[in-house]
Specification:
The structure is a single chain. This protein is α/β, with parallel strands linked by helices and about 425 residues long. About 30% of the residues lie in helices and about 20% in strands. It has a 5-stranded antiparallel beta sheet with strand order 5-16-17-18-19, with helices on one face. It starts with a strand and ends in a 7-residue tail after the last strand. The model has no long low-confidence stretch (mean pLDDT about 100). Bound molecules: zinc ion. Zinc ion binds near residues 150, 229 and 230.
Length: about 425
C-alpha cells in the first residue's frame, strides 16, 4: 500500500502540521515529521477535513445507468471530498429487498472510490402501502440502518408509525421526504409571489411543514429516531427546533442548493432550477443558514440527483426534478456558510462528516484526523477560485445549477482508508487505487 506524508496541512483548531498515512491509518501527526513515505504532498494552505459523508445520494443504478452508475457516482463523490455516501432506494428495481441493497453495496465495494451504504425503501415499490422487508435489509450484507421512500413521502400515518416502531429494534432511522401529496398535486415550484407572477402551480411550504410536524409527534410517541430529508422552509426549521427542545430524537439535513439559490431563478424557466423540494425564498435561505449554523439542522446532504440531458433540456412542466451536487457541495458550503462567517471549518467537518456519519451509524467515518484513526480525509484548498465547468465533472449527468458560476475552493486530494482516490484535483485511475 502506498504511504503518504502530507506536509503543512491546516488541521482543525490547530497550527499547520504534517500527517503520515500508511496501511489505511493515520500513523503520525506533528510538526516536522521525519518519517519517510512513498509520496510527499505539499499541503500548505490546504485544510485537512475528515472524509465527507453524504446522507442523500441518488446513484441511479440499477435501472437508470444512462443518468449515473455506482462507479461514476462514487467517482463524483471522491472528487467532492466524500468517503461515504448513502445511496437512495428509488432505483429500478426499487431497493426494497435484501437482494437489491446487497447488489448496490457490492457495486460500491467494486468501485473503490467511496463507501456506498444503501438506503432501504420503507414501503414495497415506494408505493406507500405495505412495509418493505426492513429487517431482512438490515440483516443483509449491506447492513441497512437508514430507510427512506425518498422521491415520495410516506404519507400514510399508520405506515409511518409502523416503520418507526420497526426500525427501533435495530437502532435504525426513517428518513422522510416530507411532502404532503394532495397539497402538491401539479406543483411546479415554490408557492409564493414568483409562482403567482409566472402562473406556475405552487408548492406551499405547509405541504412540507405539515408532514414534519406529524412525523416529529409520531417519532416522539413511539420513541423512535426520525431524520428529515432536505428541509427547505423557515417554518420547517421552527418545528425541528421545537422537537429538539423537547428532547426528541429528530435530526435534519439541508441541501447545498437550498443554502444558496432562491425561486427568483425560476423566472428564467430553465429546468436546471427545477428540484424537489423547490427552491424557496431568500427568507427561507436565511433561516436555513442560521439553523445549520446553530445546529438545529444537523447535516448538509447533497440530494445529488443526476438526470440525462433529454430529461432536463425540455419545457419546464415536462422536466425531471433534481440537480447534481456531489462535486460542488463543499464549495457551495464555503460560499454560503464559511465565507459569510456563519460556520468555521470545524463546523463544516461536524455538519458534513461527523454528524451525518453518526446519523447513519457509519463506524469508521466521521472520525477526527488523528493518530490511530482510519485515514479517511480530504485536503481542501479554500483559496482556490474557479468557474464551475460541468464538462469536467465525473458524474455522468450535467444538470448543475452552477454552470459558469464562480465558486470558491477546490478538493485537492481525497483518501479512503489511506488510498488516494483524488490527487492534485484529479481522479486516480481505478486500477491504481492502492
Ligand atoms: Zn427527496
Amino acid at each position: 500500500m502506498t504511504s503518504y506524508l502530507i506536509r503543512n496541512a491546516q488541521l482543525l483548531g490547530g497550527p499547520a502540521q504534517d500527517i503520515l498515512i500508511d496501511a489505511g491509518v493515520v500513523q503520525q501527526v506533528g510538526t516536522g515529521l521525519t518519517a519517510s513515505a512513498d509520496v510527499e504532498i505539499d499541503a500548505s494552505g490546504l485544510v485537512a477535513l475528515p472524509g465527507l459523508v453524504d446522507l442523500h445520494t441518488h446513484l441511479r443504478e440499477p435501472g437508470r445507468e444512462d443518468a449515473e452508475t455506482v462507479l461514476t457516482g462514487t467517482q463524483a463523490a471522491a472528487k467532492g471530498g466524500y468517503t461515504a455516501v448513502h445511496a437512495m432506494a428509488n432505483t429500478f428495481p426499487v431497493a426494497d429487498t435484501a437482494g437489491v441493497v446487497e447488489q448496490v453495496w457490492r457495486l460500491g465495494k467494486e468501485s473503490g472510490y467511496c463507501d456506498v451504504q444503501p438506503v432501504g425503501a420503507v414501503t414495497v415499490g415506494l408505493e406507500g402501502k405495505k412495509l418493505a422487508e426492513l429487517g431482512a435489509m438490515h440483516e443483509s450484507a449491506a447492513g441497512v440502518r437508514v430507510f427512506s421512500d425518498d422521491g415520495k413521502c410516506v404519507d400514510d400515518a399508520v405506515i409511518m408509525r409502523r416503520a418507526l416502531e420497526y426500525v427501533k429494534a435495530f437502532d435504525g432511522v426513517v428518513a422522510q421526504h416530507a411532502q404532503e401529496p394532495r397539497l402538491t398535486e401539479g406543483a411546479q415550484m415554490n408557492e409564493g409571489q414568483v409562482s403567482g407572477e409566472l402562473g406556475l402551480g405552487g408548492w406551499p411550504a405547509v405541504a412540507e411543514e405539515a408532514i414534519i410536524a406529524r412525523d416529529v409527534l409520531l417519532a416522539a410517541h413511539v420513541g423512535s429516531r426520525l431524520h428529515v430529508c432536505h428541509v427547505s422552509t423557515a417554518g420547517s426549521v421552527e418545528i425541528i427546533r421545537w422537537a429538539k427542545a423537547k428532547g426528541w430524537d429528530v435530526t435534519a439535513e439541508v441541501t447545498p442548493h437550498h443554502l444558496l439559490l432562491t425561486d427568483e431563478l425560476v423566472r428564467s424557466y430553465d429546468p436546471v432550477y427545477k428540484v424537489n423540494p423547490p427552491l424557496r425564498t431568500a427568507e427561507d435561505v436565511h433561516a436555513l443558514r442560521k439553523a445549520l449554523a446553530d445546529g438545529t439542522i444537523d447535516a448538509v446532504a447533497t440530494d445529488h440527483a443526476p438526470h440525462p440531458a433529454e430529461d432536463k433540456d425540455c419545457e419546464w412542466a415536462a422536466a425531471a426534478m433534481g440537480m447534481v451536487g456531489l462535486e460542488t457541495a463543499l464549495s457551495v458550503v464555503q460560499q454560503a456558510m464559511v465565507d459569510t462567517g456563519l460556520l468555521n471549518w470545524e463546523g463544516v467537518a461536524d455538519r458534513m462528516s461527523h454528524r451525518p456519519a453518526r446519523i447513519g451509524r457509519l463506524t469508521g467515518h466521521g472520525r477526527p484526523v488523528s493518530v490511530g484513526e482510519p485515514a479517511n480525509l480530504v485536503l481542501f484548498d479554500p483559496a482556490y477560485r474557479g468557474t464551475v465547468n460541468p464538462d469536467a465533472f465525473a458524474t455522468r449527468s450535467r444538470n448543475t445549477p452552477y454552470r459558469g458560476l464562480d465558486l470558491p475552493g477546490r478538493v485537492h486530494a481525497t483518501f479512503l482508508r489511506g488510498v488516494a482516490t483524488v490527487l492534485a484535483g484529479e481522479l486516480v485511475e481505478q486500477d491504481s487505487l492502492a
